[in-house]
Design a protein that fits this description.
The complex is a heterodimer of chains A (about 375) and B (about 1100). Chain A has about 375 residues and is α/β, with parallel strands linked by helices. Chain A has helices spanning about 45, 100-110, 120-130, 140-150, 190-195, 210-215, 235-245, 255-260, 350-365; strands at about 5-10, 15-20, 30-35, 55-60, 65, 85, 90, 110-115, 130-135, 170, 180-185, 200-205, 220-225, 250, 265-285, 290-300, 310-315, 320-325, 330-335. Helices cover about 25% and strands about 30% of the residues of chain A. In chain B, the strands form seven sheets. Chain B has a seven-stranded antiparallel β-sheet with strand order 14-13-10-11-12-15-16, sandwiched between helices. In chain B, strands 31-30-27-28-29-32-33 form a seven-stranded antiparallel β-sheet, sandwiched between helices. In chain B, strands 17-18-21-20-19-22 form a six-stranded mixed β-sheet, with helices on both faces. Classes of the chains: A alpha/beta (about 375), B alpha/beta (about 1100).
Chain lengths: ~375, ~1100
């Protein structure tokens, strides 16, 4: 198989040689913020995770596509990422679960990619200089550079609007009897699946008001993951403020940042974020180490804020990974306990959510 | 939780000699553990019988016992040292089994020694097949259907329940020894019975066969706070049915979805917790049905293993080091990640490259062995290669093997498969053998589809397609010319792992033209870093591999540096001894202020620990790969490479010496190396120095060889030049034998293989000195001409047995002072004449004809296999001294510096004994000859020659009997000395059984013979084999008659081997054994540390029984 020669150009002018794969891009140019993910498996889940909206995902593991794609491991119906950067796209896939190839998925879903890239050099560049916009494709180097430099930054942009559902929908319980309302800021299917183990899940659009949610009489409210900067998502922060104390809340990733903002904390952008499946997190309550799946560029500032305590921190760099409200039933984590992809070490947090709901309902009764 | 303060001293058990299934990976793990525990302030007591290890260097432990690894020895050590704790998980199966014996014998309890790192229940749960299976079922994990049997009757019942095909595994066995697959009832009966016999507890596991399924392994760690991590995931290219030690394996896992991988990860932790490994590393093996994804647990090892060494090298996560820290109380999050320094060890390494391991076999050494791979491990070593993609790492791994192959075919040797029809080729690939990977590529090149090859071999289609990528690239390149490739095309070819030599062969141009054309378009090698984190964090530890991408990560520094070339994969003839030498060189040079750079491709070794040198390049040891590193180091230092050390890694680096930049190769000049190797120049030198040699000559043709023999007479020794371990070396007794030997050598020469005959590499034909004593001398000469004699070693076996297979003693026991003086004088003269700078090994033969007459056999201006043994016996760090000498220091300066010390003064005698792998190859004859066959060595050290010899025998796995019956059968030429051996045993009270000829000789000398058996073919009643199998024989002495397996002797030796009866195949070793038994009876068994011996122990310290 031979592909057309292509280039990846970063906003700082760094150029990488590769070959174009996946869908044809308009004018031979695909742009986005370049982030790298260090997970060695789970590319299907990662590509279809709505939190990557607007980004170009580069995988540090060189062989991508080895086991194909299947109908089950989608985290959303379609990818929201802008493009894919790999060292080596599989020519042939092999796995009994596979129903198609990664390349076919890219073509079908209109996602462009580039293969043959020295992704390690790319990772080192981003590590040293921070996440930056880039452009790849078959266009000329000058066109790609211009495109990369015109790519707007993600700070202050509400990307949630690009991924949230348009109207509410309900998912039947696979286990418990709870009634959970889940905010869709870009929710992953596996989160909904995990919540379904606790009860019926009603997924609602990001802009749903607190009153609307409370009218649904939930046992608990879930704040999902999602793309980009939490600060411009002010409507969600307001809604959460309206829900705090009224109903138990559990947030993940962007949901965690939004809960923190609602409690008065601040957020900031990390140099190149955490994207991988091997981040050690310390659970301060037990002292245990959890190996976690992570995907975020923004984080909560580690300041003493009245009413919350930090429950988890990243052992690599000390970033706040979890908080708990002291006066109201609410907690959240920055990382991904639902995994998909990644380790299952933190799935106990869904059981914690159940406990919180149980406690609250007992109090009500 | 911090370090435990309630324990002060820890006993560590090493793995003993290198054997198949247990190699130098346990020196790597043990050395790390010793270091860490001493850093933590504990008193470390070490027991290991293997003198060639780094861990038994006296500075690595507080008390180093180079003693046999037996219950008796360990008990004596515990009584003497009273350790607080025993750490048994870093010395392989040997240490684990010994720990269990100590528990069962109540020794630990009696002396209040706590087992740390694992407990007896956990070990039993993991090791006992039945307990393990029920434990797995209890936690809801699937295992293959199976049953346990202790008798043939129980086996038959199990066969009915499970159905064929079936796998039989004996309990408590290392490396899968005695394991077999049965597809017919007949095969089943044979394998079941053999398995019951092989198991120390006479128990086998009978299992549903999952041959052809995918095989995976997870390397996991747990701390006592119950934090668990996966360090590395491994996928086997060879599906189930081939022992994982014999499989080509790849890290990380390639063909599992994250859903499947996470299920496996969850299962591995569940296994760890259920088995009860409280702290440390373990591995868990899984098998997956490719059709359905059904996942079953195969086994787990509750200890550091061969694959954990591989995993450590593959990821940069030092499992053994961390395991040692966890064992003394730390938790993972309290230990920093060595490589990033900034992040903790409580994480899972992620890698951004592909690691391929390929085993190296030695079937050519064991005629009669089928070479078919199965569930019992047969390989003697392995290589690992790192590339950014699987094709790149695979081709690098293939050329690391040093089989004379430049990559995955596309070289001169690929023609070996040309004669096979397409159908035969595919049929051959379907049966796993050592060359299967080449057959897979050839089959794809012949046009078989990936699906067809998969159907025949069950090798996963993804791997096959990646191989096909290499094949397709080769096809595309073959139509091209060296000057026509574009930059992108060059890059693509190099990224798929093609060596310049492969392309030179493909285009039939000199390799220099390939390199030049490539460099002209700007395609140059780049070095990436192994950093545990996929470049997410800055790495502090420079551990590099080559690839062909955009940027290189070698950090610039102007410090003067020395490059040390390692010894490549372990093989018979070139093993851990040479790694020891390279490691010592690195330590010595680092201490002397140089930056040290190691190049090697063997993942089992201490040299490839990134802690050993300032910089590690995990690379094949080929000219292209080595030159690339030299250039990179020159570039990074502004040309500040002070030297390249080629003389410490055996033949591997030495073979490259002539083609490396001449001014950089330190030590003895390549011209001197050639002077010692080139037979004509060497003969002239010996004549000039008036040093006697056996008569002989060199030949490149059979005619010339016959001509030489007509002059010197039979028997003659025929050997190729430039090989180690006596590869293809034979003693011929007649013309037919000579013709046969020459034919064999020219055949391998035409394939470009090691030891082959060619115009540049002629064959040496020498008069063979019968009944001579062989002697090795290791010496060092500095640039001022001062000579240091490191050691004079007298061999126990006579000349004709390869020195690597022979026991030897320091100091010599039967040589006169005058002879020793002559030997030392000759060694010195040769060192001077060869202008040696550094180490020299000279082999002599001493004939007792009237006086003792000395002949020189050969001289090698390089480190020899015996150097570590000599250093342990004499206390002089020979390699460190030699390395400094090579870089310009004089012996005087090193004395002043304190590095060179005097030999220790004491009455001890050290015996090195070889350890042979015949129990792995029951079809091969266990006789010794001029071709080396041993895989490892042990040392016995004590105050008499007999005691030291007896200890060496016990350490090598054959305990000499205290009494009983000796079976004696010797060749006619051995009859005279054979009688003396018989007499010695009779005097010790042994009864003698003998074959008729030997019995006649004994009777004539007045020695009583209790039982006489006829030769096999003449026997009507009990023959020799029946007698040995009856269990009435306690020791067997049988010497071979000439070359090749002769019916009688071979059957006798095989019978002794299968019954585990001590077997000696030379008369001289029989006499040494008799002396050993005599001394053993009269003296009390004592253990002493190497440190004590090095301080000087007197014979007066011997204790009578």
């Amino acid at each position: 198989m031979t592909y057309e020669d292509a280039l990846l150009v970063l906003a700082d002018g760094s150029t990488f040689e590769g070959e174009a794969i996946g869908a044809d891009a308009p004018n031979g140019i695909t742009t986005g913020e370049v982030v790298f993910n260090t997970a060695m498996s789970g590319y299907q889940e990662i590509i279809t995770d709505p939190s990557y909206a607007g980004q170009l995902i580069s995988f540090t593991y060189p062989h991508i596509g080895n086991y194909g794609v299947n109908d089950i491991d989608f985290e959303a119906a379609s990818p929201f990422c802008n493009g894919l950067i790999v060292r080596d796209l599989a020519r042939l896939h092999s796995n009994h679960r596979a129903t198609s190839s990664l390349e076919q998925l890219l073509v079908d879903k209109g996602v462009s990619g580039i293969t043959g890239i020295d992704t390690r050099r790319l990772t080192r560049t981003i590590r040293d200089h921070g996440a930056m916009p880039g452009a790849f494709g078959t266009a000329s180097e000058a066109e790609l550079l211009a495109a990369a430099q015109h790519q707007p930054p993600t700070d202050g942009v509400d990307l949630v609007q690009t991924v949230t559902c348009q109207s509410p929908y309900e998912t039947a319980s696979t286990g418990g009897t709870r009634r959970i309302v889940a905010y869709d800021f870009g929710v992953k299917r596996t989160m909904v699946r995990q919540l379904s183990g606790l009860g019926t899940v009603e997924v609602v659009p990001a802009s749903t008001s607190a009153a609307d949610v409370l009218a649904r009489q939930p046992d608990g409210v879930f704040l999902s993951n999602g793309p980009g900067d939490p600060e411009p998502v002010t409507y969600a922060v307001e809604a959460i403020q309206g829900l705090l104390g009224e109903v138990p809340i559990f947030g993940i990733c962007l949901g965690h940042q939004l809960l923190s903002l609602a409690m008065g904390a601040e957020t900031y952008k990390l140099p190149f974020g955490h994207h991988g499946a091997n981040h050690p997190v310390c659970n301060h309550a037990t002292g245990a180490v959890e190996i976690t799946s992570q995907n975020h560029n923004y984080a909560v500032v580690d300041d003493a804020i009245s009413g919350i305590e930090v429950t988890h921190r990243n052992l690599n760099d000390g970033v706040v990974e979890g908080i708990r409200c002291l006066d109201v039933p609410a907690f959240s984590v920055q990382y991904h306990p639902e995994a998909a992809p990644g380790p299952h070490d933190s799935r106990y947090l869904f059981a914690e959510f159940e406990k919180l709901m149980q406690h609250a309902s007992r109090k009500d009764a | 939780m911090p370090r435990r303060d309630d324990i002060e001293s820890i006993l560590l058990i090493g793995a003993g000699p290198i054997v198949i299934g247990q190699a130098c990976e346990f020196d790597y793990s043990g050395t790390q553990a010793c270091r860490v525990l001493r850093e933590e302030g504990y008193r470390v007591i070490l027991a290991n019988s293997n003198p060639a290890t780094i861990m038994t260097d006296p500075e690595f432990a507080d008390a180093t016992y180079v003693e046999p690894l037996t219950l008796e020895t360990l008990t004596a050590i515990i009584e003497r040292e009273k350790p607080d704790a025993l750490l048994p998980t870093l010395g392989g199966q040997t240490a684990l089994n010994l720990a269990m014996e100590l528990v069962e014998a109540g020794v630990l309890e009696k002396h209040n020694v706590e087992m740390i790192g694992a407990d007896a229940t956990a070990i039993a749960t993991a090791e006992d097949r039945g307990l393990f299976k029920s434990a797995m079922i209890e936690i809801g994990l699937e295992v293959p259907r199976s049953a346990i049997a202790r008798t043939w009757e129980e086996s038959e019942v199990a066969l009915k329940e499970i159905g064929l095909p079936i796998i039989i595994r004996p309990a408590y066995i290392l490396g899968g020894k005695g394991t077999g697959i049965a597809t017919t009832p007949e095969e089943f009966e044979k394998a079941a019975k053999a398995g019951i016999e092989a198991s120390p507890i006479n128990e086998i596991l009978i299992e549903e066969s999952i041959v052809g399924w995918k095989e995976f392994e997870l390397e996991v760690m747990r701390d006592h706070a119950d934090n668990c991590v996966v360090v590395c995931s491994i996928e086997n290219v060879d599906p189930m049915g081939v022992h994982t030690g014999d499989s080509i394996t790849v890290a990380p896992i390639q063909t599992l979805t994250d859903v499947e991988y996470q299920a496996m990860r969850d299962a591995a932790f569940a296994v760890l917790r259920r088995v009860g490994v409280e702290t440390g590393g373990s591995n868990v093996q899984f098998s997956v049905d490719p059709e359905t994804g059904r996942q079953v647990v195969i086994e787990m090892n509750p200890r550091v293993s061969r694959s954990s060494a591989l995993a450590s090298k593959a990821t940069g996560f030092p499992i053994a080091k961390i395991a040692a820290r966890l064992a003394v109380g730390y938790t993972l999050d309290e230990i920093p990640n060595d490589i990033t320094k900034a992040t903790p060890a409580s994480f899972e390494p992620t890698i951004d490259y592909v690691v391929t391991k390929i085993p190296r076999w030695a079937f050519e050494k064991f005629p009669g062995v089928s070479g078919v791979l199965g569930t019992q491990m047969q390989s003697v070593g392995e290589v690992m290669a790192i590339g950014r993609t699987f094709p790149e790492s695979l081709q690098k791994a293939v050329r690391s093997l040093e089989l004379g192959r430049d990559g995955l075919n596309c070289d001169a040797a690929e023609g070996e498969l040309d004669d096979l029809s397409d159908a035969d080729l595919l049929a051959q690939a379907a049966v796993p053998r050592s060359m299967r990977i080449f057959e897979l590529e050839a089959a794809l090149r012949r046009g078989f589809s990936v699906d067809e090859v998969f159907a025949a071999t069950k090798v996963d289609p993804w791997f096959l397609d990646q191989i096909l990528a290499i094949t397709e690239e080769r096809a595309a390149l073959s139509g091209r010319t060296v000057e026509s490739l574009s930059r992108r095309e060059w890059r693509r070819a190099k990224q798929l792992g093609f060596a310049d030599t492969q392309l030179a062969w493909l285009w039939d141009v000199p390799v220099g033209e390939v390199a030049k054309a490539r460099a002209d378009v700007g395609i140059n090698v780049t070095y990436k870093t192994v950093d545990t984190c996929g470049a997410e964090f800055v790495a502090e530890t420079p551990y590099h591999y080559s690839t062909w991408e955009d940027e290189t990560e070698v950090a610039p520094s102007v410090k003067e540096r020395v490059i040390i070339l390692g010894s490549g994969p372990n093989r018979i003839g070139q093993g851990i001894e040479f790694d020891y030498c390279c490691v010592h060189a690195s330590f010595a040079l680092r201490d002397a202020g140089y930056e040290t750079v190691m190049i090697n491709c063997n993942p089992e070794t201490v040299s490839t620990d990134y802690d050993t040198s300032d910089r590690l390049y995990f690379e094949p040891l080929t000219l292209e790969d080595v030159n690339n590193v030299i250039e990179a180091e020159q570039a990074a230092s502004g040309g500040n490479v002070a030297g390249i050390v080629v003389s410490l890694g055996g033949q591997t680096p030495l073979k490259l010496a002539g083609d490396l930049p001449r001014d950089l190769v330190v030590g003895t000049s390549p011209d001197s190396i050639d002077l010692a190797e080139d037979r004509d120049r060497w003969n002239a030198l010996c004549a000039q120095l008036e040093i006697p040699q056996p008569a002989g000559g060199t030949a490149t043709t059979t005619e010339r060889a016959l001509e030489i023999v007509s002059r010197i007479g039979f028997p003659a020794l025929v050997r190729p030049s430039y090989v180690l371990g006596g590869r293809a070396m034979v003693i011929v007794h007649d013309e037919d034998g000579l013709r046969e030997a020459m034919a064999e050598l020219s055949a391998i020469g035409s394939l470009g293989r090691e030891g082959g005959l060619s115009a540049e590499r002629p064959v040496l034909v020498d008069r063979f000195l019968q009944d001579a004593i062989e002697v090795d001398v290791d010496a060092i000469r500095d640039a001022t001409g001062e000579i240091l004699i490191g050691g004079v070693m007298e061999h126990v076996e006579e000349a004709g047995v390869h020195s690597g297979d022979s026991a030897c003693m320091i100091p010599p026991v039967t040589l006169s002072d005058a002879t020793v003086a002559t030997l030392e004088h000759y060694a010195g003269e040769l060192a001077d004449a060869l202008e040696v700078i550094g180490l020299l090994n000279v082999q002599f033969a001493v004939q007792n004809t009237g006086g003792q007459q000395v002949f020189v056999i050969e001289a090698n201006p390089r480190a020899s296999r015996t150097v570590p043994f000599v250093a342990k016996a004499t206390g002089v760090p020979l390699v460190k001294v030699a390395t400094r000498v090579m870089l310009g220091a004089t012996l005087d300066e090193l004395r002043a510096e304190g590095l060179l010390t005097d030999k220790v003064i004491g009455d001890h005698i050290a015996v090195k004994e070889a350890v042979l792998p015949f129990n792995r190859f029951p079809e091969a004859d266990s006789m010794l000859g001029p071709e080396m066959k041993s895989t490892g060595e042990v040392m016995g050290i004590d105050l008499t020659a007999g005691l030291a010899f007896a200890k060496s025998q016990i350490a090598a796995g054959q305990t000499l009997p205290e009494g009983g019956t000796l079976f004696l059968s010797v060749a006619d030429r051995d009859k005279a000395v054979g009688v003396e051996a018989g007499r010695a045993f009779v005097e010790l009270g042994f009864a003698i059984a003998a074959t008729s000829g030997t019995a006649r000789a004994l009777k004539e000398a007045g020695i009583p013979v209790a039982v006489v058996v006829a030769k096999l073919e003449e026997a009507s009643g009990t023959d020799a084999v029946d007698l040995i199998k009856s269990g009435e024989i306690n020791i067997v002495v049988n010497t071979p008659r000439g070359r090749g397996p002769r019916a009688d002797g071979a059957h006798i030796r095989a019978a002794a081997g299968s019954k585990g009866i001590p077997l000696l195949t030379t008369v001289s070793s029989a006499i040494a054994a008799a002396n050993g038994i005599a001394d053993w009876r009269t003296h009390r068994f004592q253990v002493r540390t190497l440190q004590e011996f090095h301080n000087g122990v007197s014979r007066n310290d011997l204790a009578d029984r």
